[in-house]
Amino acid sequence: MTVSNPVPSLGSTVLPDRGAIQVAGPDRLTFLQGLLSNDVTAVTPTQSRYAALLTPQGKFLHDMFLWQADADSLLVETHRDRVTDLLRRLKLYRLRAKVTLEDASDRVETVVVFGDGAAQAFGLPEMAGATANQGDRRAQTDARVPALGVRVLAPPGSAPALSAEIGAIPREPADYNRLRLVLGVPDGDRGDLVAEKSTLLEANLDLLNAISWDKGCYVGQELTARMRYRGLVKKRLFPVTAAAALPPPGTPVHLEDREIGEVRSSAGGHGLALLRLDGLAAARAGHGCMSADGVSLTALRPSWMPDSAAGLGASDA
User: Is pTM beyond 0.85 here?
Assistant: First the structure.
């Protein structure tokens, strides 16, 4: 069973847990290009990117959106509570690069506009990463999955005027989080990716436009490429549903008596779970029921995930 965008009406909300780092200087592109998983040189006034910073061993540290702030700088939009850690790590790599790094979290806020017509409200195509600068704000069709709507970097406090301008209904961050979970998109700050443990392919970031496979070297590239080219991905994140509230992150998922994964973030009966592909295949073949702490689960295939990545045949979709 697959799942697609469940939100019909246009809504908007501020994500208060988002922050930003401004990266400026003549070496800003080459500096970030050697660190991040995506092609930083592709960031322009009309294109944004989603990317990650890894350990040298290829394990997840931070995920982020890359925006062009102006002709001389980029904005790295990331989790506000982890801006300090990301800044510290970037400064460790700066060495003699002609680049400045500054916490810009107090200068912008992230607004998300989601539901039918979100991209059209900003004159954007429904193409991942499509971006437009509109006065003092920047709008981006979500660089991961267009069904998540449009991300807007705007001056603090401007969200009510923006919502009125485009006719969006004010929503709560929890509404957007539920949409994220239903669509099966992980959040690096909600336990879906575990710092210094998770890999990008297990978290589906290869399918969510976070990796450039032809950009050249970056920190952690070796393991990431090896997992792809040698077919080493044995488990992936999947959206799951339940008739009751899902148990806390880290709760084991069982197929009868066999442990096949664990719950990650959730809200009510919607969540994400990291599942072994062979265990999921067994469940779909009728070899038992999945559950977590006594709560029965059903795993879904996101509409953006190909059958091959899900370990499914076409008849299973």
Answer: yes
